[in-house]
Amino acid sequence: MFILDNLEATGTIGGYVSISIIGFAIFNCFLIKRRNKVAAEIGPKWIHPIIGSFLGAIPGCGATIVVASLYKNEKISFGGLFAAFISTLGEGSFVLLGASNESDVAANLKAYAIITVFGFIAGILFGFLCDILNFTGSFSNKYQNNFKYKENEKKSNNDGINQKDHVFQITGFYVIMLMVIFLAPGSVMAFWGGSIEIISELTINVSIALTISCILYYFMNEFIIKSNNCHCEEDNFKSTMLHAVKDVSMVVTFVFIGLFIANYIIDIIVGAEIFEEWMKSSDYILILLAAIIGFIPGCGGMITVAAAYITINNFPIAALIAAAVATSGDGIFPLLAQNKKDGLIVSLFGLVVALIVGYLALVLGLK
Fold first, then answer.
1. Does position 163 have pLDDT exceeding 80, yes or no?
2. pTM to 2 decimal places
3. Alpha-carbon distance 338 to 344, whole Å?
4. C-alpha angle 42/245/300, rounded to 5°?
């Protein structure tokens, strides 16, 4: 039951995360065809932290996944990337906005507004600091050094893949796409706590199936086939969609791993009663605990802290702010998978910023 619950939760998250990934891929493909080239950057570098922080403040994890993709393609600075991860609340935003039976939109709208403002401002400030210090991360060098290798490998990858592997990839692509399309309407409604009751049971089963399919698809592509045959023309729609589904499978896989670990630690190892006692400890300790829980990759930690804020009396909003700043949402998974160094830097720096902002909020009287 514990495993099935996590498979279902991951599939639910995967449904609307897929909308962001595939939507951005289609938009990017359309943009490239229109302009016949990829823009070097989105506006001047000084505006990147503002753009990143604004995108991160959008409810959900989709925007951070998009920003991670922009950063990978060197269209946004490290400061813009960091700002997005600082300002995001991940799926915890929907808990506060009403996508949970335990929450009350009217009662928690003020809390949501406060932590969004704190995260947005902190994202801009620390994003600017990263760019002023000229912190560039390691994607630039990595992609410049591997550009020729990828170009030389491209033909051999496309020619070397055998028929069985090709059939598996195409079949997996259509299976995942069909489930994503089926889940899309319910995923959009779930943003605000809605659902399609007539197919609720089927939706649960499809969500579980999507998670399992994505995990199999990701591990087969990553460790069995090892073809990397998605090094193809970015303006080719078919190639774009194949690559987008591969990204979906990767994100869903790591979301499941993150949720499973977070829930196992909190529900099984720690236990609900002990965890609730932790959530009722002193404000200073609670800020530290909330930041550490929010630091856990994915949205599970932030959702847990948001639910604690809703259900536990006198839970300090400063601790909620700390968790919100520390969380990286599901966007951290593609970043970690593609570049572990920058992913770890973003996460660790985010934890430090979370403690600074959390304790500052407490000093300002936000309890």
1. no
2. 0.72
3. 12
4. 80
